[in-house]
Write a sequence for this structure.
C-alpha cells in the first residue's frame, strides 16, 4: 500500500531527465519533474538557477555535452529563448548532441522555427512541445502543450508533458506543435492590438474603458486577452509578464512560416509592422505585450 | 396572491410599448415584451411580420406616425438596420416623431452612428441600447445591452431592457452605448480575421485546423470568436448568422467614430480594407462574417 502510494505520487521514479534552460518557464518545469520523482540533471547558462536546482536535490552538469553523457538514453527538456540558442546548445561545439546516446529523446518546450524543428528531428529523436499559459501556467503545472513528432516519441514524452502541463495534444508530425503555437501567437498578437484599439477609441469618445471591458466580457468580443490584457490596459500596468520583444520574435517566426508555405495577408504584414513599431522604433520591448496599447496613446 | 403572482409574471402590465422593426432581432424582442404583459403596438415596413405580431395579440399601427399617436407618452423600441433608416422612420414625413407625445421615450436597439445618436437625443428622450448576442441571444432574451442616455431615461427604460436582455450596463450619456457597441464590433471584426489567418496558416502547414482550434481553446488565444466562428471556418459553414455586409456597416461606423474623435490606426485601416474586399470586391456580403476566411483560401 505504502509503495503503491509512493509510486502514484512519484510517477517519474527511476527516469533520468535532463533540463536545459532554467528561466521563468524552465525553473518550475524542472522542479515539477523533480517532485514527480525523476532524477533531474540541469544545465543553465548562468550560475544562480543551476545552484538553486542543486540545492533542491537535482544534479548539475558542467556543459550541455556533459548533461548528454549523464542522461545517456533518457529524456532531455529544453526551455530556451530562440531557435539560434537551441541550435547552438544542442548541436554546437560543447553541445548536448556530443554526449547524448542515440536512444535519447529531446523535448523542446520553446517556440522554435518550424523548418529548423523539422531539421533537428531528422538528427535526433525530437518532440516539439511549445506551451501556452505563461509563467503562471508553468508554476501551477497547468500549461497547454501542443506537441509534434512521431506517435512513438510522443508516447515516450507523455509522462513528462503531463507532469508540467494539463492539456496535452498531439498535433501531428515534427513541427506540428510549433505550427499550432504560432497559430496561437498570431491570434494573441492581433487580438491584443484589437483590444487596445477598442479600449482607446472608447476613452477618446468619453466612455470609461474599464466599464467597456466589463460590458464586453459577456458578448461576442469576449476573450482571455480582453479579460487579462484588457485589464492591464485599463489600469496602464505594463510590467512584464510576457515581454513584447518575445511577442515580436514569435511574429517573425509566424512570418517565416507564412513565407515557407506560401501564405500571405495584409493583416499579417500590418501586425508585424505594429509590433516592430512598439519594440524596434519605440523601444518598448521590455514592457508586457499588453503595452502595445501605448501605440494609441 | 393570485394578483401578486400575475404581476410578477407580467411585470410590464399596463405599459404601452411601440415596436418598430420586426426582423431577426425585433420579432423576438416584441414577443418577449408582449409575454411580459406590455400592450405592444407594432409597425414594420413589410406586411408579414406585422400580421404575425397581430395574430399573437399585439396591436398594429398604419405608419410610424400612427404608432406614435397610439403610444402617446409610452416607450417606443427601434430595431432598424441603418442610421439612415432610423432617421427617416423617426423624423421623416410620416415619421414617428410626428405622432409622439413630448413625454415619450425612444429606445434604439440598433447599431447607429454615434454623432447621429447624440443629435437624435437632443430632439427626443432617447436611450441608445445596442445589443450583442445575435439572433440566438434575442430569442433567448439573453442579450448583452450597452446603454447610453440620462440616468432618468435609463431607469425608465430598464424594465424593457431587462425583459429582452440579461446583462444591461449603463455606459454613460447619449452615444455611450453606441461607442461601447462599436468597441465590441472592432474586436469582433479583427478577431475573426486573426482566427481565419491562424487556422488557414495551420492548414497550409499540414496541421488539422479542427485540432488546432481545440488545442487553442485552453490557452491565451481563447475567445468566443475562436469557439463559434473558428468552428464554422473549420467546417466551411458560412451560412449567415451574422451577415458580413452588416459587419462592414459597423466597421464603417467605427471608422466614422475614429475620425470624429481623432483616433487613427493602420490596423483599423487594414481592417476596413479586408471587410471591403470580402463584401464589395468579392461580393460575399451575404455570407456569415466568419466567411472572411475565404479571403485566405
Amino acid at each position: 500500500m505504502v509503495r503503491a502510494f509512493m509510486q502514484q505520487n512519484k510517477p517519474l521514479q527511476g527516469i533520468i531527465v535532463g533540463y536545459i534552460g532554467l528561466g521563468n518557464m524552465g525553473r518550475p518545469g524542472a522542479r515539477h519533474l523533480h517532485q514527480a520523482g525523476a532524477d533531474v540533471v540541469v544545465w543553465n547558462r548562468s550560475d544562480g538557477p543551476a545552484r538553486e536546482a542543486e540545492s533542491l536535490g537535482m544534479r548539475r552538469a558542467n556543459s550541455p555535452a556533459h548533461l548528454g553523457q549523464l542522461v545517456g538514453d533518457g529524456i532531455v527538456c529544453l526551455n530556451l529563448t530562440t531557435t539560434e540558442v537551441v541550435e547552438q546548445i544542442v548541436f554546437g561545439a560543447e553541445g548536448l548532441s556530443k554526449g547524448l546516446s542515440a536512444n535519447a529523446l529531446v523535448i523542446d518546450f520553446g517556440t522554435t522555427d518550424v523548418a529548423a524543428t523539422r531539421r533537428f528531428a531528422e538528427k535526433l529523436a525530437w518532440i516539439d512541445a511549445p506551451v501556452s499559459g505563461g509563467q503562471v501556467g508553468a508554476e501551477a503545472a497547468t500549461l497547454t502543450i501542443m506537441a509534434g513528432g512521431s506517435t512513438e516519441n510522443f508516447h515516450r514524452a507523455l509522462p513528462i508533458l503531463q507532469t508540467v502541463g494539463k492539456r496535452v495534444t498531439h498535433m501531428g508530425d515534427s513541427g506540428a506543435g510549433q505550427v499550432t503555437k504560432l497559430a496561437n501567437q498570431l491570434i494573441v498578437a492581433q487580438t491584443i492590438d484589437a483590444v487596445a484599439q477598442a479600449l482607446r477609441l472608447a476613452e477618446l469618445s468619453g466612455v470609461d474603458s474599464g466599464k467597456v471591458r466589463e460590458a464586453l466580457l459577456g458578448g461576442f468580443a469576449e476573450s482571455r486577452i480582453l479579460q487579462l490584457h484588457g485589464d492591464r490596459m485599463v489600469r496602464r500596468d505594463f510590467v512584464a509578464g510576457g515581454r513584447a520583444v518575445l511577442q515580436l520574435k514569435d511574429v517573425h517566426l509566424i512570418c517565416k512560416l507564412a513565407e515557407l508555405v506560401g501564405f500571405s495577408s495584409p493583416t499579417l504584414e500590418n501586425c508585424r509592422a505594429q509590433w516592430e513599431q512598439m519594440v524596434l522604433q519605440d523601444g518598448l520591448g521590455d514592457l508586457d505585450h499588453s503595452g502595445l496599447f501605448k501605440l494609441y496613446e
